[in-house]
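Supplementary Methods, section 5.1.

A reviewer requested that the exact input to the structure prediction be made available. We therefore reproduce it here, unchanged from the version used in the analyses.
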Amino acid sequence: VARTVTAETASHLARAAVNVLATSSSEDSFCGASSNGRTTHTPDNNYAPCFPVLPRLIEARSGAGAGCLCVDGKHHLILVGGYARKGCLVSVEVHTRSGSSSDPAVTDNPQFPYYSLDAAMPGPRLSKPRGRLALAHSFCSTTDGLLDVLYVCGGSNGSVDLNTAERLTSSALSDWLAEHAERVTEVVPNSSLRNSSTTINSGCHQQAAVWQPIARMNQARSSPAATGLDDLTAGTLVTSTRGSMLVAGGLAGAVALSSVEAYIPERDQWIQLPDMCTSRYEAACATLGSKNLVLVVGGDGSSFRRHDNNNDALVEALDPRCSNWIPLPSFNPGGHGKLRGAALVHRPATEDGLLLIAGFNGQDTLNRTWLFDPTAWQWLPGPFLSTARTNPCAITWPDRSATFVLGGFNGTASATGFLDSIEMISYV
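The structure derived from this sequence is encoded token-by-token as follows.
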């Protein structure tokens, strides 16, 4: 099969072919904190105690999305939708952090960078219940400059797979916060920060206009993977990456999808991109800017098979300047050789690299993580989570100081299986 690649990408892939499996462990030392107060461990048990007990979510959830929006110089973590025992959720939660890595009050703290999240407050609700959704962060161009934007697309309302999409901009969030956000928090002993009383204008729960609809996708899909494309160079497939996002795979009915589409905000239009090599749902997706690649990792599907010891189908990549997806080096997730319901984010404390978090390998719910080293083209073992979880959402803070892992599902960790805990991964 003929494949068109750039010279640089071909060089990268040639290097990747001789580094298929990682056998070494990361030399970096990680530390973690969690809502249950336990400390996470690196594979060689080189860890340190961490101070903050993180807050818990207002509502336990799995299959949600998380992203950051910047309002007046302050980043807000936005947790969106998902599903719980009662069904698919319309609710949104907003977290902020008590400091930033540029704040002397934080950097002078000997426990930097482990400054915690503040307690969550209810945020502007989605226009409809949406679980098993895809969320991507990007930037949109306006007459006033660039705005942060979160796109939420696809998912399920509990009975129907969705092709609808909506967005929340930093400007819209700013207006909403100015009108509605007044809260009081208290510290719950031996537990977490929770809202003791959230005094939000009573009209906020009747409105959904803060989230703005965008064009419908070409294909309804639940449990897809998505990422913004801002840090990639445009090509023949996507001629402008500013404000664009990519959505891959998912489920339509009971059928796993290999189809991929991208949203072009200037035209408010979805365009079809080349199909992935493998049909997959509950995959994870992120960009690797230094290599100009979109990576999709894991997932499950009717055509998803592991052949002997070759599990390269776990990971594939697309360069927007090329016309095909290409398998990349992989790793062994154990179990049945599959990995679904993991989260993929940029690695904290580095300019490049990715962090793959948790998931389900067909046998066990995992507390493992993996680091992708784009220089060596290897997957390395990362720190362990305190709680094994599948279908969590995760976000690396914009200053790359830490990664937060939120919610998910673990059938033995709570009465319902749905998790309200948060964990933080950061370098010592």
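Confidence is low (pLDDT under 50) at residues 1-27, 37-51, 183-206, 303-312. These observations are discussed further in the main text.
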